[in-house]
Design a protein that fits this description.
CATH class: Alpha Beta
Order of helices and strands: HHEEHHEHEHHEEHH
Structural class: alpha/beta
Strand content: 5-15%
CATH superfamily: Uracil-DNA glycosylase-like domain
CATH topology: Uracil-DNA Glycosylase, subunit E
Helix content: 40-55%
Number of domains: 1
Bound molecules: uracil
Radius of gyration: 15 Å
Length: 186
């Protein structure tokens, strides 16, 4: 499993499937336990992630770490990745062709890890994996079971960095996630 995850990561680091490859410093394959029960899937690398080649290491990542800790989770025991693996210019939303070009990597990671729970962090991940028309403000915190995997869409931690009024909603999503994990994983 570790080998499969590392093989996918190596492919991602060398990827030229879309034009985002031209602007990147580093591709960001994702990191964590290759046998994790839970995966977190975000939108895409930002400036800090692009520099370091690691997911969620900027301000949103700091907040994610705190929320994980409050939920009794450590980074090393989960797997954290994104729907696109290279930074989009000015952190714009990923385009459908970029998501499509990267999709095989994400599907490969999900198949290799075979998690019980996938936490969809923010709108683009939710729309990519659950429903292209999903409204994150309507379905955040609500679990959906599909093909034996429990998908849990949540607000992106960056949302409350931009809009402090959303902080309680972000914290509540993590509390719901923790309750679901306790129920689902025991
Ligand atoms: N935001 C994301 O969606 N992913 C990252 O890796 C960092 C910030």
């Amino acid at each position: 499993m570790d080998d499969m995850i590392e093989a996918i990561a190596e492919e991602i680091r060398n990827c030229t499937r879309c034009s985002l490859a031209e602007g990147r410093t580093n591709a960001v394959p994702g990191e964590g336990a290759a046998d994790a029960d839970i995966m977190f899937i975000g939108e895409g690398p930002g400036q800090h992630e692009d520099r370091q080649g690691r997911p969620f290491v900027g301000p949103a990542g700091k907040l994610l770490d705190e929320l994980l800790q409050d939920a009794g989770l450590r980074r090393e025991q989960v797997f954290i990745t994104n729907i696109i693996k290279c930074r989009a210019p000015q952190n714009r939303d990923p385009r459908p062709d970029e998501i499509q070009a990267c999709r095989g990597y994400l599907d490969g990671q999900i198949a290799a890890i075979n998690p019980q729970v996938i936490c969809l962090v923010g709108r683009p991940a939710t729309q990519t994996l659950l429903d292209p028309k999903a409204s994150i403000s309507k379905i955040h915190g609500r679990p959906f079971e599909r093909d034996g995997i429990l998908y849990v869409p949540i607000y992106h931690p960056a949302a409350c960095l931009h809009n402090p009024g959303l902080r309680s909603a972000v914290v509540e999503d993590f509390e719901k996630l923790k309750a679901l994990l306790d129920q689902h994983l025991g």
